[in-house]
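example protein:
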Amino acid sequence: MTVKFLQRTMAVLALALTSAAHAQTAAPQAAPAPAAAPTQDADPALWVVKDADTTIYLFGTVHVLKPGLSWFDEAVKTAFDKSDELVLEMVEPDPQTMQGLVMQMALDTKGPALSEKLPADKRDAFAKAATDVGIPSAAMDRFDPWFAAVTLTVAGLPKLGYDPGSGAESVLSAAAKSAGKPVTGLETPEQQLGYFDALPEALQVKFLVSTIDDFPKMGSELEKMVTSWSTGNPTALAEAMNEGMRDTPEVAKVLLTDRNIRWADWIAKRLDKPGTVFVAVGAGHLAGADSVQVQLEKRKLTATRIEY
């Protein structure tokens, strides 16, 4: 998995781990708040699956955005307002709980230091990337390689102008709370951390190395992903994802395909219960040959794109 793949799918922990990564690895002081950006219209893709008495909206999210994108309006807002409940990938726990889970799963107190696990010719580049985001590389020496890879990615986002508070999940969660709508998760924090933690160490190191190699291109690659999302272009998003999946298809299977299959099963079962549901998951899960929509088709269910 390259950093391109992580950025473009904003793999499961980008929002949840931001606070945990910073707290556990002595992250830098928060960047000054950027000047107010002019509002820019965004029309991300939205689908609906329905039967006689159940409607399920499928909305692809980006977990961290720059301020100023106007996306929670028009068809997206209408669908949300009609819904009885909000379903996310995961209901984010409080930072203290997440930090405890990170310490339990990502900390390695017995094995070699992280720098020793890296190939010798990548150690200087890792130290430079860590310094660029304000985290001494030695501070990550007792963490698993997967956590270092995710940390490098998310810790650099504020410097690029991305604000976790502007992410789609944050906005939707706040709107649900204000409207008194229940919010549930398709997965637990333990499950999401576990996807990474269960990867063989050699694959984790490969993931970290590719993150280091692609680190200088983070801003431009993430900008492409957000543009594809905001213009409602899942085809472009899928093409971007496929480029990253070629590196480690076994990781893509764990983080995308297998989860899409489980979520399609959940949707099929949820159709047995009347009501209207707004399901919001990472946009990468709703794009490409193994998307949730494709898995639904295999179950003879149709996800129809809502044009607006």
Notes: The chain has 14 helices and eight strands. The radius of gyration is 19 Å. Residues 61 and 154 are 16 Å apart (CA to CA). The longest helix spans residues 249-270.
